[in-house]
Amino acid sequence: MSNLENTILVDLARKLFRGCTNFHIEPDSVKLMTWSWQELFVDLTLRSPVIKKYPISTELSRIFLKKLINCIEPVQEVHDNLYAELCRAMNNSAIEDYCYRHYVISNDLNNIITMKETKNMVVNGTTGMRTWEAALMLSDWILCNKELFSSKDVLELGSGIGFTGITLAKFCEPKSVTMTDCHEDVLQVLCENVDINFPSQCKNRSSDGTTYELDNTSFVPRRHPRYDNNHGC
Ligand SMILES: C[S@@+](CC[C@H](N)C(=O)[O-])C[C@H]1O[C@@H](n2cnc3c(N)ncnc32)[C@H](O)[C@@H]1O
């Protein structure tokens, strides 16, 4: 696969991973979406281990696939696997309270932060059940200024379900990260997101349930990924 074909694949995969259906594909790019490109795209996204384990919203994948197929159909033969995934998404009409979104931190789809979240901005009287665009922007800035957080005790106020604090804990080598929120349901999902992204690490939740602390002295990754600040749709 050429560099350009790979770039198009990764760019589109990042959007699908995070449930972004607002994309545009240049006609020249569609010409590169050959049969084998499409097969690889499905294998690396909808049939990847991470999405099998933590599925993205079927509604969002349905919208995404319809749009992608509409782009490809006039130019290329559409791969059976794309149709199969669309049918699967269309057959699954269960109402989803939660879905998973996967935020790709590097250019190669290997560094991913998985978040359990809702599709709606306000749920049960809280705005904290979704990752806000502000959290993505702040994380971009944090990842560009990692040295400010190295070996520091970091406190996040109103962390919601945790994207910013988890990103910082994973990539900035802080001494500790404390994420706080006032909403019980938000804290519950925050704990689940910490478990997803730090499956075997040491974690402590305060007795009053309003603070969730990561003792990350033992889990800070030693290798740093290359960071690409293309979080936008
Ligand atoms: C707009 S959400 C943003 C969540 C997250 N920071 C993000 O950007 O995705 C605001 C969060 O702050 C929390 N919050 C609001 N007032 C708070 C307070 N006084 N103490 C703790 N958390 C608070 C809410 O429960 C909610 O989860």
Automatic annotation (TrEMBL):
GO terms for molecular function: protein methyltransferase activity. It comes from the Eukaryota. GO terms for cellular component: nucleus. Pfam families: Methyltransf_16. This is FAM86 N-terminal domain-containing protein.
